[in-house]
Specification:
mainly alpha; two-stranded antiparallel sheet; globular; 49% helix
């Protein structure tokens, strides 16, 4: 599949250098402010090109672009910290050995276009009106983990019903749920145990609580990265 491997976390390579600092547990309670619904025509243009709003947001969440869409040093190639494979392209195309940057970018764009349409359809199926922020978050999650992306819309609906203070973040975390009470994200768990910045914030936790916060540290950072792009692009 396109994008990163199922449980990989390529953007942790940046660890605050290209994306921003990880805010820890604050991200788990910070309310999500969803922008007003954009005109329907804009939904299909979010991933029209590599320079489109959605593409930049995913690229920034991956650590491969700044908020303006300029490439970082990671774009042309880096090792995926989740599975050790070689990534290339603005969406961190996994196992990109033998692909040029242009080829990897083309695969990224095609995958994001397909995934975003799937997210829009899933949201409509569960009765959620698609907005720019929700679509981009669902697509970014699909790029990171296609399996989790398939559950994003339903988990978002559940978070809304439960009146979660940050439904997008909660949905992204719980999309990694393989059965009630069990979250699975082997790549993220490996990173949380390896990178001190993460492991320090997880001290004293165990079981589901550890799993939830580990995934939340990464997903929260990505949610904030997307917000930063939306805010930056809105000023233009």
């Amino acid at each position: 599949y396109g994008g990163t491997a199922m449980d990989s976390l390529v953007s942790v390579v940046a660890l605050g250098l290209t994306v921003g600092s990880i805010w820890g547990s604050q991200l788990l309670v910070k309310p999500s402010v969803t922008p007003k619904t954009q005109p329907s025509a804009s939904m299909t243009s979010l991933f029209a090109t590599k320079s489109s709003l959605g593409s930049i947001a995913v690229g920034h969440a991956e650590g491969n672009m700044d908020t303006a869409g300029n490439p970082t040093h990671l774009t042309n190639g880096h090792t995926d910290p989740g599975n050790g494979a070689f990534n290339r392209g603005f969406c961190s195309w996994n196992r990109a050995n033998g692909l040029s940057l242009a080829q990897a970018d083309a695969k990224c764009l095609a995958a994001l276009q397909s995934q975003s349409q799937g997210i829009i359809a899933d949201l409509k199926t569960v009765g959620i009106a698609p907005t720019t922020e929700i679509i981009i978050n669902g697509t970014d999650l699909s790029n990171q983990s296609p399996r989790a992306g398939k559950d994003f819309a339903a988990k978002y609906r559940d978070a809304i019903k439960a009146k979660h203070p940050n439904p997008i973040l909660d949905a992204r975390i719980k999309a990694f749920e393989v059965k009630p009470g069990r979250l699975t994200a082997s790549g993220l768990f490996r990173i949380c145990r390896t990178y001190g910045h993460y492991s320090q914030q997880l001290q004293g936790l165990s079981g589901y609580e550890w799993d939830y916060k580990c995934i939340g540290l990464d997903q929260g950072r990505r949610v904030e990265a997307i917000k930063n792009v939306l805010a930056s692009q809105a000023k233009k």
